[in-house]
């Protein structure tokens, strides 16, 4: 399994890539494997301010629906529109084309409080 070292991770299996005050967020390879084939991604929160650890959308797989939790507080500035027609990008490229949202982060330093790759690997038992 892949755990890019330039990302930060949450206990809820989201990943964060911080560039300045913009965070790109998606779900981890581990999460998409656990969910199975992704068939729909619903993120109705564009331009909304979401607090850390609050739900910002859902991801639907063949067998289940799972909430998506915001890793850091901020405003959702962009949604990956490619997922509307090809939600399977989350399965095939979770850290690339399968990203979900871009967020203007209230406090970029909050990202430092998330798990690094080693801590995330330990969390999931890798």
From TrEMBL:
Superkingdom of this protein's organism: Bacteria
A Gene Ontology term for the protein's cellular component: cytosol
InterPro entries the record matches: Biotin_lipoyl, GCV_H, GCV_H/Fam206, GCV_H_sub, Single_hybrid_motif
Sequence positions bearing N6-lipoyllysine: 63
Obligatory cofactor(s): (R)-lipoate
Role description: The glycine cleavage system catalyzes the degradation of glycine. The H protein shuttles the methylamine group of glycine from the P protein to the T protein.
Name of the protein described by the UniProt record: Glycine cleavage system H protein
The UniProt record lists the keyword Manganese: no
Domain Lipoyl-binding: 22-104
UniProt record, GO biological process: glycine decarboxylation via glycine cleavage system; protein lipoylation
Family under the similarity heading: Belongs to the GcvH family.
NCBIfam families per the UniProt record, alphabetical: gcvH, PRK01202.1
Complexes and interactors: The glycine cleavage system is composed of four proteins: P, T, L and H.
């Amino acid at each position: 399994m892949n755990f890019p070292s330039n990302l930060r991770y949450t206990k809820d299996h989201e990943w964060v890539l911080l560039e300045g005050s913009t965070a790109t967020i998606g779900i981890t390879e581990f999460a998409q494997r656990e969910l199975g084939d992704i068939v729909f991604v619903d993120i109705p929160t564009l331009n909304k301010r979401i607090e850390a650890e609050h739900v910002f959308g859902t991801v639907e797989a063949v067998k289940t629906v799972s909430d998506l939790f915001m890793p850091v507080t901020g405003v959702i500035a962009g949604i990956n529109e490619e997922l509307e027609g090809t939600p399977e990008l989350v399965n095939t490229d979770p850290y690339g084309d399968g990203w979900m949202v871009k967020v203007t982060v209230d406090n970029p330093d909050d990202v430092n409080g998330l798990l690094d790759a080693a801590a995330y690997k330990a969390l999931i038992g890798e």
